[in-house]
Amino acid sequence: MDLTFLLSNITCLKQKMVQCIYFTAVLQAHVVAAFEQSLSNMTTRLQNLSHTAEQKVKPFLSRHPFISALFIYSNIVYNISIEFLLKN
Asked: How many domains does the chain have?
């Protein structure tokens, strides 16, 4: 085989590999961005649901000390969970 032909093929293959690696990186970046957006949407939804639940529960808290204690405990657990998720 001709050396020039082989070098030409190697150069062509290198260019295709670079294009493939670039395409893969771009695709992964889009997937990561979509995941982050989805996570942000879920976090916002969870915060809204928590706020709504808190508003619905408030009238009962003053009348029932045990329910009030459970509510405080659940808020502590929720905050610890969020902190853990944000760190990891």
From this structure: 1
